[in-house]
């Protein structure tokens, strides 16, 4: 189902600062959907808005959630209004699914997930230092409609392209180039299984872990701390990375195949912002944050 954003309210809202909380390495905010308040993951790996069947009922469809670890439940359709901070968006075509497994894994009463199309009219900044998502309205050319005096100019402006709705960047690891999608809903990085042989010498603290998404199955996969990662000339500390199946992403999203997905382990090291219209990533090159959480990656929701 093609999920399209609704219409922003006529209020002249040019920016919003949204405090978020973390559960493991996932971030969530409070939002109101059809007058019902609850917790929603900020998950740009999902295209639209996904609601939890526990709290919302929709119209049946023939579609299912499907990902690397099996087929999840049947999707339903529901048109809703969503309020996030001061932002009101009306007539959103959302999907409804059984998210009970995910809710059980992360331990909070999750009402749903807010995905990438909701943010396409804004510059999206994720600030792990201050636990805020900052949204700044863009004009048709991708220029910000307001400059916030509290935000200094980024140290780096970098380009990305899209695979489907996912921003894609190129990184270098040990002299090799890898094409990676960026997903705020990825608790750990997930690389293609066949990347292991190319990267084994740069991986330490090797383990076997179970990966589970929105589907009903768990799959054992290799993992380790991946080192020597550079995005342009920007170094990154070692990142917990799993090696598994991303075939559904390469199959279902238009564009060249990816080598992997990066999420929290990549994003939290520097403050970053995304301009979807200009296809630019802004990065503030300050000292990386040291407080990465040790989490159970069975809660990593890779079924998009």
Describe the structure.
InterPro entries: Peptidase_aspartic_dom_sf. The chain has 304 residues and is mainly beta. The protein folds into 2 domains: 15-126, Beta Barrel (Cathepsin D, subunit A, domain 1); 153-285, Acid Proteases (Cathepsin D, subunit A, domain 1). 7% of the residues lie in helices and 50% in strands. It contains 4 helices and 25 strands. It has helices at residues 100-106, 196-199, 247-252, 264-267, and strands spanning 7-8, 15-19, 21-23, 26-33, 36-42, 49-52, 59-67, 70-84, 87-97, 110-114, 122-127, 132-137, 156-159, 161-163, 166-173, 176-182, 189-192, 203-212, 218-226, 229-231, 234-236, 239-244, 260-262, 271-275, 280-284. A hairpin with a 2-residue loop joins strand 8 and strand 9. The protein is globular.
């Amino acid at each position: 189902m093609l999920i399209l954003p609704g219409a922003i309210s006529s209020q002249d809202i040019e920016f919003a600062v949204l405090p978020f909380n973390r559960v493991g390495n996932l971030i969530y905010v409070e939002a109101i959907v059809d007058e019902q308040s609850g917790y929603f993951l900020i998950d740009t790996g999902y295209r639209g808005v996904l609601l939890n069947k526990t709290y919302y009922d929709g119209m049946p469809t023939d579609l299912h959630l499907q990902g690397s670890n099996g087929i999840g439940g049947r999707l339903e359709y529901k048109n809703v209004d969503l309020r996030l901070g001061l932002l009101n968006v009306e007539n959103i075509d959302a999907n409804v699914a059984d998210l009970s497994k995910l809710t059980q894994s992360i331990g909070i009463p999750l009402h749903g997930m807010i995905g990438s199309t909701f943010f396409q009219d804004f510059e999206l900044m994720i600030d792990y230092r201050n636990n805020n998502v900052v949204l700044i309205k863009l004009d048709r050319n991708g220029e910000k409609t307001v400059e916030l005096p509290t935000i200094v100019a980024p140290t780096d402006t970098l380009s990305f392209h899209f695979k489907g709705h996912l921003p894609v960047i190129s990184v270098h690891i040990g002299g090799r180039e890898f094409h990676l999608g960026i997903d705020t809903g990825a608790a750990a990085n997930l690389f293609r299984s066949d990347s292991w042989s190319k990267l084994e010498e740069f991986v330490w603290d090797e383990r076997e872990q179970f990966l589970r998404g929105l589907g009903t199955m768990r799959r054992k996969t290799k993992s380790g701390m991946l080192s020597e990662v550079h995005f342009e000339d920007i170094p990154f500390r070692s990142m917990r990375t799993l090696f598994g199946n991303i075939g559904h992403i390469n199959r279902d999203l238009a564009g060249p195949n990816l080598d992997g997905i990066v999420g929290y382990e990549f994003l939290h090291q520097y403050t970053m912002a995304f301009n979807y219209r200009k296809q630019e990533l802004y990065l503030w090159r300050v000292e990386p944050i040291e407080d990465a959480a040790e989490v159970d990656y069975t809660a990593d929701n890779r079924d998009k």
